[in-house]
Amino acid sequence: SRREQGLQLRGSLGSISLPKKNYTNNVDGMKEKLGELAFRGPWLEQLDITVPTSVIRTVAETSGDEAGPSSGETAKASDEVDVDDDFKREACFYRQAQAAVLEALPRLEALGVRVQRPEDYFAEMVKSDDHMRRIRQQLLSEQRTMEQREKAKKLREMKKFGKKVQQNVLQQRQQEKKKALDAVKQFRRDRSKRPDFLGGGDDDFPIATQAEKERPRGKPNKKRQVKETKYGFGGKKRHAKSNTAESAADTSKFSLRHNSKLPAGIRKGGKGGKTNARPGKAR
């Protein structure tokens, strides 16, 4: 290979060859260095726990976990767990931590270290009260905004639904009205075509036909006639005083005595002078 033969760089100045590098696995030397780096202080300063495999099996048997090894598999070591099985691997980690806690608690109690919080213990918060108050206000503001959006969304949906229902109700009312009018028209047509001996005029339903509506009514009373003569009756106003052939031929209101009088100038002959009894003899 290239690494075994060395890398040769050829150029204008010549060639450079790198020597072969030998790798050595010095196990004894590494263990010696590990011993030098090992922490030699009290256990309370590091709190490290190494749990044997047998303790993990014992914890699994006493816990009665369904994910743990069965009665026929208790002899298997924990290192035989399939590492590709996520569920069993996490269960093994859980049992290992549980076994470490069971071993560490007695040692801490023997050293006089409290492992439980007293009832009157109050820890100081990392964040200040002002900061937490602002966070709470922000959360409440976001919650109110979400509630308002949901409420507006529901109102829009209800409004759309209400409009749809209202349109359906109006359409239904129009259809019912149309059906009722068609029924009344059909009834009037049938009634007008029905002969008298079949009860055409004496019907239990007081609904008049079009011909009955157009039938002339009786004359109004005296008071109504006087007012209609004075103010009109709401009829045609234009050309109301224009003559017609009948009014021009009507001479019932003509008075000879009233219409025979002539103006004074014409009656006395000229400009107020005496009338000539004999025309042509004015000398």
Summarize the structure.
The chain is mainly α and 283 residues long.
Q: Structural class, please? A: mainly alpha
DSSP helix fraction: 40-55%
Which blocks of ≥5 consecutive residues have pLDDT under 50? 9-13, 65-78
> What order do the helices and strands follow?
HEEHHHHHHHHH
Adjacency order of strands in the biggest sheet = 1-2
Outline: rod-shaped
> What distance lies between the first and last C-alpha atoms, to the nearest angstrom?
175 Å
Radius of gyration: 63 Å
Number of strands: 2
The biggest sheet amounts to: 2 strands, antiparallel
- What's the helix count? 10
Q: Strand fraction band?
A: under 5%
List the helices and strands and how they pair.
Layout: H1 2-5, E1 8-11, E2 14-17, H2 27-37, H3 53-63, H4 86-110, H5 129-193, H6 210-214, H7 222-231, H8 245-249, H9 256-259, H10 264-267
Helix pairs in contact: 3-4
In words, what does this structure look like?
The protein is built from 10 helices and 2 strands, in the order H-E-E-H-H-H-H-H-H-H-H-H. The protein has 283 residues and is mainly α. Helix 3 (53-63) packs across helix 4 (86-110). It is rod-shaped and about 185 Å long. Residues 9-13 and 65-78 have low confidence and may be disordered.
